[in-house]
Amino acid sequence: MAATSMAAALAATLPAPQAAPTPSAPTYEAIPASMAKVIDIEAEIPITSVQLDAMAVSKIIKHAKEAPGSSAHGLLLGLDLDGTLEVSNSFPLPHHSSDEDDKSAKGIARFQGAMLRSLKEVHADDSVIGFYQGMTLGSFFNQTLVDTQAIHQERLRHGGIVIVHDVSQTARGNASFRAFRLTRPFLDAHKRGNFSATSLIDRRLTFSRILEEVPLKIRTNALVSSFLGTLSEAPVPPAAETNPALATSSAAIPPSYSRLDLGIANMPRNLELVVEALDHYKTEEGNLGYLQRQIAREKAKADAFVAKRKEENASRVAAGLAPLPEEDVSRLFKIPPEPSRLESMLLLGRLDAYGKSLEETASTGLVKMYAAKGSAGN
């Protein structure tokens, strides 16, 4: 009895066991209105403009100058902020032609993954927001660009953009950068893989409605401005400080005489590209015409077979015989599918770009020639 009372006394001195606390439901605070435009989690703010950083501009120009022809292409890195797609960095990709094997394509994919991991390790921007492509004389309509941009618009946040850089304009002292993305009707037709004449008519697709341009602006900073300022300033030699007559112009960027150039050096090449594009378009139209005639012949054979079978069945029914069974015409006659008009549209877009570039070059050259003629007459 004493032991029982002692245990009861000890139990009375112990604290009463407490039930395990039930976990409270987590509470989520709403994003402040001041940060709603920055933290756009659902990508609800549409992209209305593109901002290209000066460092990315210099990298693209350098890559386009060193790459052969118009094969320069690479990835754009950055983020979207309040409806503006800010491109803060870029890096080039190895050249890969369409006729190379899959091994080269896999190597480019590995290179891209390694570059993005390296950028992430140094806490740099590693979010891919599009790609850039070098071009010549304003022409950038090709199958590779369209397919790449279609993949980006399907997988990237806000669809991504493509920035095209005209190498010929840069050679004349005018840095040309334009941002594009695929239109909704064209993207829908590309997903379905249907570029027949009927599909183009239903979606009202022409070469001018393949891409839509997005306003682009270039943002510079104090470091880039200072660097360009040092390049444009001529260093003064030590001897020239005591004797000004020894001072010579040795600026890193020499004086520009571009205003004295008529700007028609690229005109012969531009005309050659126009003629070449016309030849390609004529060949493509010939191929489309041949396929259309082949489809018409097969359809005519199928229609003649169906009409003949109907006449035979009518004769058999009149004679009191059972009609012949209906047969699947598609199994008896191989009617080719309607050909795609995508290549024709791309060639027309290329012709339009060459024509606009030729118009710009010729008009500027004519104005300078008339001005020079008037100055010489005076």
Principal-axis shape:
extended
Unreliable segments (pLDDT under 50, ≥5 consecutive)? none
Strand order of the largest sheet: 7-6-5-4-2-3-1-8
Mean pLDDT, to the nearest integer, reads: 78
Question: How many extended strands?
Answer: 8
By DSSP (H or I, 4+ residues per run), the number of helices equals 12
Listing every helix as H and every strand as E from the N terminus to the C terminus, the arrangement reads: HEHEEHEHEHEHHEEHHHHH
Could you estimate the helical fraction of the residues in percent? 40-55%
Radius of gyration: 34 Å
Structural class per helix/strand content?
alpha/beta
What would your notes on this structure say?
By secondary structure, the protein is an alpha/beta fold. The chain is built from twelve helices and eight strands. It has helices at 2-13, 54-66, 102-121, 143-155, 167-171, 184-192, 197-203, 222-232, 238-242, 267-318, 329-332, 342-377, and strands at 49-53, 73-81, 84-92, 128-135, 161-166, 176-182, 211-214, 216-219. An eight-stranded mixed beta sheet has the order 7-6-5-4-2-3-1-8. Strand 4, helix 4 and strand 5 form a beta-alpha-beta unit. The longest helix is centred in the C-terminal third of the chain and has 52 residues, at 267-318. The radius of gyration is 34 Å and the shape is extended. The mean pLDDT is 78.
What labels describe this entry?
extended, 378 residues, 8 strands, alpha/beta
Write the layout of secondary structure elements.
Elements lengths: L1 H12 L35 E5 H13 L6 E9 L2 E9 L9 H20 L6 E8 L7 H13 L5 E6 H5 L4 E7 L1 H9 L4 H7 L7 E4 L1 E4 L2 H11 L5 H5 L24 H52 L10 H4 L9 H36 L1
Parallel strand pairs: 1-3, 1-8, 4-5
Antiparallel strand pairs: 2-3, 2-4, 5-6, 6-7
